[in-house]
Design a protein that fits this description.
The chain is about 30% helix and about 20% strand. The two termini are about 30 Å apart. It has twelve helices and 18 strands. About 40% of the residues are buried. With about 450 residues, it is of the alpha/beta class. The longest helix has 22 residues, at about 20-40. It folds into two domains: about 5-305, 3-Layer(aba) Sandwich (Rossmann fold); about 320-445, no CATH class. The chain has a nine-stranded mixed sheet with strand order 4-3-5-6-7-8-9-14-13. The protein binds zinc ion. The site of zinc ion (ZN) has 8 residues, from loops. The site of zinc ion has 8 residues, from loops.
């Protein structure tokens, strides 16, 4: 079956004989109108020249939105149907405000309905294990989209894994965060949903693999961000990349350092230009997420370009992981690949003048510490603990959180070395303090 996203794309663009080149020229025509719209209606894009080619236009950054969100507003404030405020993950701190018109929200519902067609059919039931029931939240938009497909759904209040499992019993489809669903699958291997949509965080290949084996179900991954209206791209039954909303957005992949486009198929930063946003047009918006474009046709028969694996985020400036090339995504791939690991927590800790990594495992047996140490940098001090760790108790995007409040003396396990105090460590600690300050934001803001 061809991806419903590509079928929708052909209908929206009128390109029944869809080709990559045909889609590009359709997008370029649409882009001119968008630039004209943004230049005449927003302060931020005022004076932008619609005759200039896309790759010569300046970038828009998250910091631009943080510093003056209203400068992007293209409709009268009274016509804004929803404002979403979210913490930034960049180094600047602050909060982004994203505006939506009623038409923008409707386009999101349409995409959700299109994307979910691969996972569910009329008469089935979906448990939405993310977001909440507030009006126009991600969960509420998804729920109303599913209703259009004749699919019932609930967005339960979840305080721990037990509540999530109760809500998931009997569901044909589960929508949730990767680490949380993996934990559920370890506790209830016989839950057996028909399909699972992993979203709202980095999707480790190790988790996709384990969910497929444990629940014997179809597993899909979704990539979205609030700036583009939550929903953006989802894979099809061929699992050869994410079909995205190419009628609503242009995707570029750039070298994050030079800002130049990368060669086709190469990895780089995802840059997005909106073609339909009414309330808040965005032109060459740097997402900070890393992926690549796949231009070869998909196994489903789709020919529009697709986004490859989302390889995580770029902006880890000031993170100790920069020193060792260790980040939460790498740890997730490495540690969740062990079938005995139900969940784990990672924290940067300090002991005397050194910074190290503390891993707290919820595992069905003692984790193979020797193999772990062999696969992580040898000069990274690691402490290991074992404890119950229900990821539903600390909801939000996964991260290696800073825990530098006091020296970590109460732990067991051995260090594999110490890092002397240096200007580099001082820079790291500055970055950690900043992240620690930001992580004090209300939890609801960390979940879309
Ligand atoms: Zn496909």
């Amino acid at each position: 079956m061809m991806s419903p996203v590509e079928i929708w794309l052909r209908e929206r663009t009128g390109l029944t004989g869809m080709t990559s080149a045909g889609l590009s020229s359709w997008q370029v025509n649409r882009l001119r109108e968008v630039i004209e719209y943004a230049a005449s209606r927003t302060r931020f894009y005022k004076g932008l020249d619609e005759t200039v080619s896309l790759t010569r236009l300046p970038f828009t950054t998250p910091a631009d939105i943080v510093s003056d969100p209203a400068a992007f507003l293209a409709i009268p404030p009274g016509d804004v149907a929803r404002v979403t405020t979210l913490a930034t993950s960049g180094t600047t701190g602050g909060r982004k405000r994203i505006f939506f018109s009623e038409e923008d929200l409707e386009r999101i519902r349409v995409f959700f309905a299109v994307g979910m067609r691969t996972l569910v059919r009329s008469g089935q039931y979906t448990a939405i294990l993310i977001s909440d029931t507030t009006e126009s939240s991600l969960g509420s938009l998804l729920k109303s989209a599913l209703a259009r497909l004749g699919v019932e759904s609930e967005i339960p209040v979840i305080r721990d894994a037990a509540q999530a499992i109760d809500a998931a019993r009997g569901a044909d489809c589960l929508v949730g965060m990767p680490a949380e669903l993996l934990y559920m699958s370890c506790l209830v291997p016989d839950l057996r949903p028909g399909s699972v949509l992993l979203t709202a965080d980095y999707v480790p290949a190790a988790i996709i693999d384990r969910l497929r084996r444990t629940w014997n179900c179809r597993v899909y991954s979704h990539y979205g961000l609030t700036e583009v209206g939550f929903g953006f791209a989802v894979d099809c039954n061929s699992h050869e990349g994410h079909h995205y909303r190419a009628a609503d957005f242009i995707v570029e992949i750039i070298d994050p350092l030079s800002g130049n486009p990368v060669d086709p198929g190469q990895s780089g930063e995802i840059v997005i230009t909106s073609l339909s946003n009414e309330a808040m047009p965005l032109i060459r918006y740097r997402t900070g997420d890393r992926s690549r474009l796949i231009v070869a046709p998909c196994g489903c028969g789709g020919v529009a370009p697709r986004l490859g694996r989302i390889d995580g985020r770029l902006d880890k400036n000031g993170d100790p992981g920069d020193v060792w090339n260790v980040n939460i995504h790498r740890l997730d791939e490495l540690l969740f690949a062990d079938p005995d690991v139900r969940s784990f927590d990672a924290a940067w800790i300090r002991e005397n003048e050194a910074i190290g990594l503390r891993l707290t495992f919820d595992a069905s047996r003692s984790f193979d510490e020797k193999t772990l140490r062999e696969r992580l940098p040898h000069d990274l001090p690691i402490r290991i603990r074992h404890a119950d760790f229900d990821p539903f108790l600390e909801r939000g995007k996964r991260t290696i959180r800073p825990d530098l409040s006091r020296p970590d003396r109460a732990t067991t396990g051995s260090d594999s070395g110490c890092i002397p105090c240096s200007p580099q460590i001082e820079r790291i600690e500055g970055g950690l303090r900043e992240r620690s300050r930001r992580s004090g934001l209300p939890k609801s803001e960390l979940l879309p």
